[in-house]
Amino acid sequence: MNRNRTRHALLAATAALVLPFGLAACGSDDSGGDKSEGSKSEQKQSDKSEKSDKQDSGDDMAMDTFGPACASVPKTGKGSFKGMAQDPVATAASNNPELSTLVSAVKKAGLVDTLNSSENITVFAPTNDAFDKIPKADLEKVLNDKKMLTKVLTYHVVGKPLGKPELKDGEYATLEKQKLTTKGSGDSYTVNDDAKIGCGDVKTANATVHIIDTVLMPPK
């Protein structure tokens, strides 16, 4: 009888010692599994959010622009709004086929480095069609006269950022030292009364670009 009682007492004591360790081990496994699953879920959510932010960034750049010609800008690639925002202004312009004549003129005048290294400038960029409005003989004369070409091109550059609010009724000194004027409302703006902004507020790494349909000529 005493032997049986002793045996039962030993079994009970052993069970009391083993049971907590078993429960602790089970609790540890469950906790680890939940933590791992939660971490994976959080990582997927983070990746999804980051991808969404990148897409929104490109969309925001397009939404900030204005003017009827903006619709013809490529949606992707170096010539898109997002692509142009990654490069300084002269490089960004070279990726837009509608600005190839301007880019060639900038290269002839030796202004690529000047434009690319300037900070927070505004460039009124004439399209190829804008240059085509100039009689061919007159255009060739300007393109082959570096001093005159530099004068004309720097007249298209203002040394500070000009967004839509500043275009409503403004007068601004250019890098050529003479002033140009802007006016308009809504999504319709002109420069010096003649040049219409076809696509405005295009961002590059160092400049705000307004694409215009007429070449600006210095007053004198």
Summarize the structure in words.
The chain has helices spanning 2-64, 81-84, 89-94, 100-109, 112-117, 128-132, 136-143, 146-154, 164-167; strands at 121-126, 157-158, 169-173, 179-185, 188-191, 195-203, 207-212. The chain has two domains: 1-64; 68-212, Roll (FAS1 domain), CATH 2.30.180. With 220 residues, the protein is an alpha+beta fold. The protein contains nine helices and seven strands; from the N terminus they run H-H-H-H-H-E-H-H-H-E-H-E-E-E-E-E. The chain has a seven-stranded mixed β-sheet. Strand 3 (169-173) and strand 4 form a beta hairpin. The model is unreliable at 8-29 and 51-57 (pLDDT under 50).
Low-confidence stretches: 8-29, 51-57
Shape: globular
Distance between the termini: 125 Å
The count of β-strands is: 7
Q: Major sheet, described briefly?
A: 7 strands, mixed
CATH topology of the largest domain: FAS1 domain
Helix content: 40-55%
